Amino acid sequence: MKFGASVWPFQWDTPYDDGIRRIARLGFKAVELIAWDRAALDTYYTPATIKHLRRLLADEGLELSEFVSTPRGMASPDKHERDAAVEHFKRAVAVAAELGSGIMNSVASYPFEIRAPHITVLPHVQIFQVDYPPDLDWQQNWLDYVDVIRRCCAICADAGLKFALEPHPHRYMTGAASMLRLIEHVQSPVLGMNLDPSHLFPLGELSHAVVYQLRDRIFHCHFSDNDGLTNVHWRPGKGKIDWEALMRALRDVGFDGVISIELEDVPGVSRGPAALHGGYGAATFAGEAFDHENILSVAYIREICNRLQIAIE
């Protein structure tokens, strides 16, 4: 196993050069890059920028552990929107391959692309509401989503990549059971999970149980903590997730991939120049306190690994 970090909490928006260098200075061995939308794929991840980023990653001694982009419309009832989402995904996979990553990451879709409120508002609202019209064809929407994921898996397979789908509250894949159902329906060996305990825990999942159920379908990890009430992303050890049980499970199933620290609701985090959801305001670049949070995160997990005799590069 090795430690990596997500670039966006260091530097939410492009260009990512400074964020990459900062992650390397903190001693991480891997980094994740992201395209927030199709426009970013076309305007930022140009051939010249990809060549520059590959050189920068090599110079800094960093592996690109996965490339992240989630197309809108993957679960749309509109076939044209689903097809456009697949084209977005195809372009993202091409960028991932050109950058040298072996894993493509997307977050699971909302049914019908009907968005739920951010789960971080849950403690503040009297009723957590999502309006679903009564005439929706849920069975057909599920089949359409399966078809899109199957097409995306074929694109990844052709490019030699794995597809690490990320669970998220109130979407079509939220944990072990829905991931296993999707694997069964899609029937592709390249489909697996980007394990994110902060997304699993507030929905009642125990991350170590998810690992034992999915085993070699765990392709990559996002590590952050919370108290199980929302999906806030604190540093490991500050919430209620059982990290020792999780690391033992990863060891037991033979996971040897990247543990990517993804902190978002901690002091000093970057949320971009415009304030987004969460308890911390706008910041183009993460502050010094954010470096400290990452250092403490790695130290906490490394101490557990030492105790369990888990090798960390």
Describe what you observe in this structure:
The structure is a single chain. The protein has 313 residues and is of the alpha/beta class. It is built from 10 helices and 8 strands. The model has no long low-confidence stretch (mean pLDDT 96).
Largest sheet: 8 strands, parallel, barrel
Q: Tell me the number of strands.
A: 8
Distance between the termini: 6 Å
- Range of helix content: 40-55%
Radius of gyration: 19 Å
Mean pLDDT equals: 96
Low-confidence stretches: none
The number of helical runs is 10
N-to-C series of helices and strands: EHEHHEHEHEHEHHEHEH
Query: Which word captures the global form?
Result: globular
Overall SS class: alpha/beta
Question: How big a fraction of the residues is strand?
Answer: 5-15%
Strand order, sheet with most strands? 1-2-3-4-5-6-7-8
Fold topology:
Elements: E1 2-6, H1 17-25, E2 30-34, H2 38-43, H3 47-60, E3 63-68, H4 79-99, E4 103-107, H5 138-159, E5 162-166, H6 176-186, E6 191-195, H7 197-200, H8 207-214, E7 218-223, H9 243-252, E8 258-261, H10 288-308
Parallel strand pairs: 1-2, 1-8, 2-3, 3-4, 4-5, 5-6, 6-7, 7-8
Provide keyphrases for this structure.
313 residues, alpha/beta, 8-stranded parallel barrel, 13% strand, globular
How would you summarize this macromolecular structure in one to three sentences?
The chain is of the alpha/beta class.
